[in-house]
Amino acid sequence: MNEEEIDYIQQRFPAPELPSGQNVFSIDDQTAGNQVKQRLLLNDYEVRLTRTNKNFLRLSFSNNAGMIQAKMWDNQGMINRVLPLLEEYSVFDVEAIVDDYNNQKSLTINRLTPVDEKINPFSLLPYTDEDYNHLTIELYSYLDQLDEPYSTLAKETLFLFWSDFSIAPAAKGHHHNYLGGLLKHTVGLMRIARYILNEQKGHIEAVITLINLVEKSYKKDLYLAYKNNEPLNYASTWNQTIDHLYTMTTGAMNFKDQSPDYNILIVSILFHDLGKILEYDHAGLSHKAFEVLFPTANRESLETRKQAGISMDPLGVMIGHIPYGFLLFSKLLEQFNISLDIDAVHQISHCILCHHGLPEWGSAVKQPQTIEGYLIHIVDYLDSRYENAK
């Protein structure tokens, strides 16, 4: 890829402006008993009961370093005074004491002062530590290898939603749960898929090779847990995953004589988690995807929302990112006037709907029915767990 092509990609898909020279408060660096005062972004909160049936507030905040859990006791009616502020504001100056319970650090809040300022999401939310331009160029290079009209569909979809796609997280509390997480996760799947499709020995042997690498990581974690006298049940991200990977590989072996289709798999990967720009909400996210899917709907309720940290969208959670991904794929075929063979439409739709692998994990079908369906689940599974392992 030459400099002219790179310039074109960066102009069409610009990286967000990131804060520089910022001192980040990390609760992991604090000692129990420390008094702190920090400006934080509120994620969510709820009133709970202690074992003695007394009210207290459980809160979750964010900053560049990640999530910060907190609580506030109901001293002298404090909760009733604070709740209206939590409803109205997103940013707070927090005065608190650091707690450490079971090696989990949190804050006990003494005072919350609301801050009425415009939120820069990258100043108050964690974001990927990978270079945005490098991720974007790598993603575009995979899309550039698609045949037409798959390439046009993929590139126009990316351009339409770039402002949201480029900053969206891939989760709230699991893998890639930070700004830019969706971009990094999507690139990760395509990277693994490209290795599988380019392996000279074939896609099944490529998958088995990847599983062997997982087994080595798992054995290393088990050995370290043994040497450090840690509980084996919680020793590794890969715990209880090896059998599942082999089960899915066995299913994929039914299609060992079929060559996976690059166009089907890469387009499916682009759309597989695209619905998360509707399923999640956070500061800096627009509601463009709702407008695209439901152009005749009255969207006034969206415009009056208070955006804060990464949270489940109250509307999006009713449907979920898997059906949303299918709906976006179907809608954009019409919007961009893309003509695909009816078989290809169903193959991509199937991949989107089955990428979680099992119905109990959210898959919309009982099990994958194509080689691309098995592969999209396997690469999704691998990338998410490698992220957790890191």
Automatic annotation (TrEMBL):
Top-level lineage group: Bacteria
Database matches in InterPro entries: HD_domain, YhaM_exoribonuc/phosphodiest
The protein, known as: HD domain-containing protein
GO MF terms, alphabetically ordered: hydrolase activity
Key words, A-Z: Hydrolase
Xref: Pfam families: HD
Annotated ranges, domain HD: 242-383
Biological processes, Gene Ontology terms: rRNA 3'-end processing
SUPFAM superfamilies linked to this entry: HD-domain/PDEase-like
Entry-linked PANTHER family: 3'-5' EXORIBONUCLEASE YHAM
